[in-house]
Amino acid sequence: MKRYKWMPDRLLCAMLALVFILIGNLPAVAGQDGNVANPIENVVATSNASSEAEAGPENTVNGSGLNANDEHSTQAVDMWLGLLEGGPVHIQYEFDAVYVLHEMWVWNFNSLFEGILGFGAKDVTIEYSVNGTDWTTLCDVQFAQGPAEPDYVANTIVPLNGISARSVRVTIRSVWGMLGQVGLSEVRFWTLTEPYTVPDGHPISGVVATSNAVSEEGQGPENTVNLSGLNAKDEHSTEHTTMWLGVPDGEPVYIQYAFDAVYELSEMWVWNYNVMFEGILGFGVKDVTIEYSENGTHWATWGDVQFAQASASPEYTANTIVPLNGVSAKYVRLNISSGWGMLGQFGLSEVRFFTSEAPTLPSFALLLDDFESYNPIERRIYDIWLDGWINESGSTVGYFEAPFTEQWIVNSGDQSMPLFYDNRVPPFYAEAHRDLEESLQDWTVNGAGALTLYFHGSLDKNHNVATDRLYVAVVDDQDRMAVVQHPDPETLLADGWHEWSIGFEAFEDVDLSGVVRLAVGVGDRDSSRPGGDSVVYIDDIGLSVVGAQADPISSIPGVVATSNTVSEEEEGPENVVDGSGLNDNYEHSTVYSDMWVGELGDDPAYIQFAFERVYELDEMWVWNYNSHFELMLGFGVKDVSIAYSEDGASWTTWGDVRFAQGPGTDDYTVGTIVEFGGISAQYVRLTIQSGWGVLGRVGLSEVKFFGD
C-alpha cells in the first residue's frame, strides 16, 4: 500500500485558497482521488453575530439559493448576513455525529452589488472539535469573493485532510469590504466515511474473558477481548475463528470479564457474532442481564439489555453501546437469556470496556515520549518518529488513516505508537528513530540510571523468534551508536504490556550527556536472515532512577511487615524487610524464598509496615517480585494505594503509585522510589489494586524506608 504524507496543513490550506481565488468559478468536484465523497446532512449552523430574521446562519446549510447545478442565486434572503460588533465573529457548524472530514466547500456572500459592498468573509481561522469544548486550530484560509452572478459555484475548497470532528468553527478576521457586516451564501462539508462514535473514557486493557459454555478450540471467550478480527478502523471481519461461540452445558450461559483492578466503568461496546450467514444462523447474543462485582463474590444487577444483531459484513463496527454510568467493578458478567436464532449456540465478536480513569503514566526522571502530543494535523507521529520511508528499513510508523496512532492498545494515556515491521526482505530489520530536541539530550540528569520503555507484542504472533528481536539504539552528538537487544527472544509473543529497563552501562560506547537520536527496532542490524511481518506497540519512554545507589540515609531498622494474604512458609511478608536476596550493591536475587508472594482473596490485598516509633518519612525504595519467570508470570505488584498512620487506627491516604515490574535477573537494583516528603507515620499500608499478571498472586522482593 502506498502512503502519501501531506504537507503542513496551514501551507496546504493557504495554497489551495490562493488557487481558487486565482481561477475563480472553477466547478467543484469532491472525491477527485477516486473515493466517493458524500455531503454531510442535517448540519446545524449558529453564529455569535446578530442577523435579520430572514438572513440567519441557517441559510448557509439549508440549500436555499442553490439550483440543481449547485449554482447560487444573488438573492440576499438566501444567504447569511451578520453584524461585525462586540469582538471576533464566528459561524459554527454542528454535525449529528463525529465524522472524518474530507473537504469544506464555500459559496461566499453573492448579492448583486457584492463587488462594491464586500460583505463576503475574507480571512478566516478554521477550528474543529469532537466534543464542542476542546478546540484545535486547523489553518488560516482566505475565502474567494463571490462574483455577484446568479450562476455562482463554490470557489473556495478547504482540504480537511481526514480530521475527526463533530463541530467546525469559522472565525472571521476580515471581510472584502468596510461596511461592518459579514456574510456567506452556503457551506458544505464532505466525508469519505460513515460517522462514528467517540468512546466515553479510556479503554481498559488486559481484560480476561471466561464462560461456562463449551467452545471449540480457537473459538473461546478470549477472542472477545484480544482484538482478533478487528482492523485499524475497528471493523470486525466475518472470520469465525476470531470470535467466541459457545454451546450451553446444562445451565444458563454467561460470559464473564475480569479486569486487573476495580474501575469506574463508563461504557461497554459490543460487536456481536458476525459470520457471513449470521442473518440466517442467528448465533449472535440478543437478550442479556448485566451484573457487576468488585470482588467476584458479591454481585449487583445493572439491568437488561438487547444487543443489536451483527451486519454479517467484513466492515462491521460496534453497534451496541451500553452506558455503565460509573459503576465500580472488577468483574462484569453477561447472563445470556436469548440469541438471534434458534440453533442453541451463542457468540460474540468483541467486547470492549471503558473507564473515566486514564491509565497512569509511569514515574520517570526524564520523560522522553508518552505519545500523547501527536495529532493528525500539526504533529503526525510519523513526522517525528521516522520510519522505513525515510531510513529505508522495513518499518512503518502509524496507521494509514487518521489519527495514525493506536487508540486502544495503550500503556497509559490515550495513545501509543504502532510500529509495523516487515523483515521478510532486505535489510531484514525494521527501525523507527526520533531526533531528540536539546532539552532531552542530557541523560545524566536527575539521578537517571536506565532507559525504560513499555511495549506490547503483536496480536497475530507472526514473529520469527530466531531473528525478530526487539532492540533500542542510541546515537550521541559524535555519531557514536550503541545497540541493545532485548534479552528474551520470545518477548514479542507475550500478551499484554511489558516494561523494559536498560541500565546505562549498556550504552557505555556513547556520551549520555549528548544523546541526539533514539531508535526502536525489530530484527538484527547485522543479520542477513529474513524474519517476520507484524507489529509492536511502543508507549511511555523515559529515563528511570534504577541504578545501584548508596542509601540517602540509613534505612529505618526493625520494620515489621504483615499482610492479609496467604503465603507459603518460606514466602511470607517478612522477606521484604529482612534484606534477604540483596547483595552489597543493592542488587536482588531471583531466589523465590528471598521474596514475599501471597494469594489474592475476596478482600483487597495489602501489605503493611510497622516501625518502632513515629518517623518523618522521606523515601520508600521498592524492589518488585523478581523470579526468573516474572516477565511471564507477572506476580509483581503493579498499582497500589498508599496510606499512612501514626497510631494504626486513623489512616490518611497518601496517593496511588505504579511499581515498575521486576526484570527477572540477578542484578536487579531498586525499581521504584517513592518520595514521601516528610510525612509523619509509624505505619504504612500498601493496598494492592493490581498486579503485572492475572494468576491471582502478588509479591515483592524488598522494601526499604528512609527518614528521621
SSE blueprint and pairings:
Layout: H1 9-23, E1 38-39, E2 44-47, E3 80-83, E4 89-108, H2 114-117, E5 123-129, E6 136-142, E7 156-159, E8 164-172, E9 181-191, E10 202-203, E11 208-211, E12 244-246, E13 254-272, H3 278-281, E14 285-293, E15 299-306, E16 320-339, E17 346-355, E18 366-369, H4 381-384, H5 388-391, E19 395-397, E20 417-422, E21 429-435, E22 450-456, E23 470-476, E24 481-485, E25 497-503, E26 515-523, E27 533-544, E28 560-563, E29 596-599, E30 606-624, H6 630-633, E31 637-645, E32 652-658, E33 672-691, E34 697-707
Antiparallel strand pairs: 1-9, 2-4, 3-9, 4-7, 4-8, 4-9, 5-6, 5-8, 10-17, 11-13, 12-17, 13-16, 13-17, 14-15, 14-16, 18-27, 19-20, 20-27, 21-26, 22-25, 22-27, 23-24, 23-26, 28-30, 29-34, 30-33, 30-34, 31-32, 31-33
Describe it.
- Strands 1, 2, 3, 4, 5, 6, 7, 8 and 9 form a 9-stranded antiparallel sheet that branches. Strands 10, 11, 12, 13, 14, 15, 16 and 17 form an 8-stranded antiparallel sheet that branches.
- The N and C termini lie far apart (63 Å).
- It contains 6 helices and 34 strands.
- The protein has helices at residues 9-23, 114-117, 278-281, 381-384, 388-391, 630-633, and strands at 38-39, 44-47, 80-83, 89-108, 123-129, 136-142, 156-159, 164-172, 181-191, 202-203, 208-211, 244-246, 254-272, 285-293, 299-306, 320-339, 346-355, 366-369, 395-397, 417-422, 429-435, 450-456, 470-476, 481-485, 497-503, 515-523, 533-544, 560-563, 596-599, 606-624, 637-645, 652-658, 672-691, 697-707.
- The protein is mainly beta.
- The chain folds into 4 domains: 9-191, Sandwich (Jelly Rolls), CATH 2.60.120; 202-355, Galactose-binding domain-like (Jelly Rolls, Sandwich), CATH 2.60.120.260; 366-544, Sandwich (Jelly Rolls); 560-707, Sandwich (Jelly Rolls).
